[in-house]
Design brief:
Blueprint (H helix, E strand, L loop, with lengths): L1 H15 L14 E4 L14 E6 L4 E7 L3 E6 L4 E6 L4 E6 L3 E6 L5 E5 L4 E5 L5 E5 L1 E2 L2 E2 L6 E3 L5 E5 L15 E6 L5 E8 L2 E6 L5 E6 L4 E7 L5 E9 L10 E3 L5 E5 L2 E5 L5 E6 L4 E7 L5 E6 L2 E6 L14
Antiparallel strand pairs: 1-24, 2-27, 3-4, 4-5, 5-6, 7-8, 8-9, 9-10, 11-12, 13-14, 14-15, 15-16, 17-18, 18-19, 19-20, 21-22, 22-23, 23-24, 25-26, 26-27
């Protein structure tokens, strides 16, 4: 996600120096690239990816709302939008560099607000409340992505990838944290380079976290007390054309991770089943529509959608769905 923004900023600097690079690569052709027959159990071979709306600065953090729209962060336009099926969009809030979003169990929007260096809750009338912005008295780096855990707590990543320009890093590592309903923050992981997307398995026994800098996905054993153990590399996405970023799971435990050129789909054993090639580089994704069988994908300047055979696992709903 932020690596793409960095590339675009570098392109501008190079152009000023007379060494122009294309700020945005040409759009790819949508494809379903199966590496295993099991891929076709999750998506129909005739499925198409359609554009809901384009014209954003840089999209992130999709969340489906049962009212019939998708929340979308725009990191360059500094807004969170409501985006409807007909392409209409409404501004919910103007907020500096909003990033990953989710709902809590009361269907309230949570956002990783990079400029505020905080996790915030945003009301339906566009007001926000800071839920956490410090660990042991020091400001977070730039919270990136957020998910609700099986224990009802909030879990989020805090890389330095969106650390506001001119501000200092106060915490000397890039962590993953647990935030409980009382506002207590607990550090879970501190040895990742740039932790980004994170997601829980449907049975609540695994926590997946990807590291964009290392281009891998790690998995941890999760306990009911909100503690993790046994961290290990689950999979790697080291091809050119992108890095592991947002992730979601389906109800069978398959993992969908935005990565090089599209959405990489992994089974629970770590086998790469195939890739959904997306026209623009995707940063995040979310299950939506009434049956949660549609993937909404935020990809650079656009919001896309694709119908799936699989049904999504949605952690903030009762029992996941």
């Amino acid at each position: 996600m932020s690596l793409i923004l960095w590339h675009r900023q570098l392109a501008v600097l190079l152009c000023l120096a007379g060494l122009c690079l294309a700020a945005d690569p040409p759009r790819r052709k949508f494809e379903l690239n199966a590496l295993s027959p099991d891929f076709w159990n999750l998506v129909d071979g005739s499925a198409e990816m359609t554009t809901v709306v384009t014209g954003f600065g840089f999209t992130e953090g999709p969340v489906w709302d049962p009212a019939g729209f998708v929340y979308v962060s725009d990191e360059e336009q500094n807004k969170i939008y409501r985006v409807y099926a007909d392409g209409r969009k409404e501004t919910l809030i103007a907020l500096g560099d909003p990033d990953g979003n989710t709902f809590d169990e009361q269907q309230r929007l949570l956002d990783c607000a990079s400029v505020l260096r905080a996790v915030v809750r945003v009301s339906r009338d566009g007001q926000y409340k800071v839920l956490a912005d410090r660990f042991e008295g020091k400001r977070f780096n730039s919270p990136n992505d957020v998910v609700i855990g099986p224990d009802h707590a909030i879990y989020f990543t805090d890389p330095t990838s969106d650390l506001p320009k001119g501000e200092k890093q106060e915490i000397p590592f890039q962590g993953v944290y647990r935030l409980d309903e009382s506002g207590n923050v607990r550090l879970l992981v501190k040895d990742m380079s740039q932790p980004n997307g994170l997601a829980f398995s449907p049975d609540g026994k695994r926590l997946y976290i990807d590291d964009s800098a290392q281009k891998n996905i790690r998995v941890f054993d999760f306990s009911a007390s909100g503690k993790i153990s046994g961290g290990r590399i689950f999979a790697e996405e080291k091809e050119p054309g992108g890095v592991p970023d947002g992730m979601r799971l389906d109800e069978s435990g398959n993992i969908y991770v935005t990565g090089p050129k599209g959405i990489w789909i992994w089974d629970p054993a770590g086998h790469h089943l195939g890739t959904v090639i997306v026209p623009e580089q995707p940063a995040n994704l979310a299950w939506g529509d009434k049956d949660f069988r549609t993937l909404y994908v935020t990809a650079t300047h656009s919001l896309y959608r694709i119908r799936m055979k699989a049904r999504g696992f949605v952690p903030y709903l009762p029992h996941g769905l």
